[in-house]
Write a structure and sequence with these properties.
With 343 residues, the chain is of the alpha/beta class. The chain has 12 helices and 12 strands. Helix 1 crosses helix 2, helix 5 runs parallel beside helix 12 and helix 6 packs parallel to helix 7. The radius of gyration is 24 Å and the shape is elongated. The termini are far apart.
């Protein structure tokens, strides 16, 4: 049975205004009434008229994202996991999210147009880089925003959600050092992205603290793919001083690392220890690798849901300020990290 607003209100014995206010998050509607309305919506399949809702509330009930597209830019499983979490939270609050594609050189202009269109109530950005000009641009717009990640070199006086990337890779490197590894390599994300910068900084800090050389550390940067993990590991193994341990920024990369080690006749853990960052991707579980992977773990899906929850809460209740939030990644030790081989 599909009903309209008038019929829904009659079923509940409430005014259309009360039902509308309950659906749109007005604080004067008590929790019991709001739950009655929401249950009736679930039972009847009622969907509000978006145009009428927008006129009544001044809100579009939408979150906006600008996605850069170009022949050399591929959407990967990491981005998909984040969007899944964003979508799950949006559905819970009956919000949409609007993805506006843009050429890379027109990204800021596209953000401004999206904000001015009235089609979204809030914006967020991801894939943050050093001195990211998009943050200053977002500050200038009359619309709430949230940054997934943190810039480097321009302070932190803006709302963001991030994980402690530096701390995660510092702790992972410390584990390898405690196991006797002295030649540790890093396969990282793209060099201009701040999460990759922070992971590199965490690794180097742990090496310096242990009195180990850092000037010729084996470090590679690129897209976080299986193929790149394979190519980087193959190059590392050909070095005159190959690593006894490898850190990599994704379990997707770790697939390629394992493939390269297998081809070289080396065994994960026994010959070369391996730690990967686990974004908790649904089809790639670190515990299901032939040699279960030691990981630093933080869910991208959960991050997407949290970004949506924070933005929607602020849209519905502007007095709830958008602030800083930093998550700690969990180091989970499995069989891929063992004492450094002797000799």
């Amino acid at each position: 049975m599909v009903v309209n607003l008038r019929q829904l209100a009659e079923m509940l014995g409430l005014s259309q205004t009360t039902v509308s206010r309950a659906l749109n998050g007005y604080p004067e509607v008590n929790a019991e009434t709001r739950e009655r309305v929401l249950q009736a919506v679930r039972d009847t399949g009622y969907r509000p008229n978006r145009a009428a809702q927008r006129l009544a509330t001044g809100r579009a009930a939408s979150i906006g994202l600008v996605m850069t597209v170009a022949p050399d830019i591929d959407t990967d499983v990491h981005f998909s996991a984040f969007l899944t979490g964003l979508g799950e939270a949006s559905v819970r609050h009956d919000f949409h999210f609007v993805i506006n594609p843009s050429a890379p050189e027109e990204e800021e202009t596209t953000f401004r147009r999206l904000a001015a269109s009235g089609n979204v109530d809030a914006l967020f950005i991801a894939s943050v880089r050093r001195d990211d000009p998009r943050i200053e641009m977002l500050r200038s717009l009359p619309i709430p925003y949230l940054v997934h990640g943190r810039a480097i070199g321009q302070g932190e006086d803006y709302p963001f959600l991030d994980i402690d990337n530096e701390g995660a890779f510092y702790e992972a490197t410390q584990l390898l050092i405690s196991l006797g590894h002295r030649r540790i390599a890093l396969i990282n994300g793209q060099e201009h992205l701040t999460f990759a910068m922070r992971r590199k900084a965490g690794m180097l800090a742990a090496l310096r603290e242990a009195g180990l050389e850092t000037q010729d550390v084996l470090i590679a940067h690129d897209f976080m793919t299986d193929e790149y993990g394979f190519r980087a590991t193959t190059a590392f193994l050909a070095d005159t001083r190959p690593p006894t341990a490898i850190l990599c920024s994704s379990t997707v990369m770790a697939l390629g690392v394992v493939r390269a080690l297998n081809r070289a006749g080396l065994k994960v853990g026994d010959d070369v220890s391996l730690i990967a960052h686990d974004d908790v991707l649904p089809l790639l579980k670190p515990e299901h690798f032939n040699v279960p992977l030691t990981t630093t773990q933080s869910s991208l899906r959960a991050a997407g849901a949290r970004v949506a929850e924070r933005l929607i809460t602020h849209v519905l209740s502007p007095e709830d300020a958008l602030e800083h939030e930093v998550w700690q990644a969990e180091l989970i030790i499995r069989d891929s990290t063992k004492p450094a081989p002797q000799g």
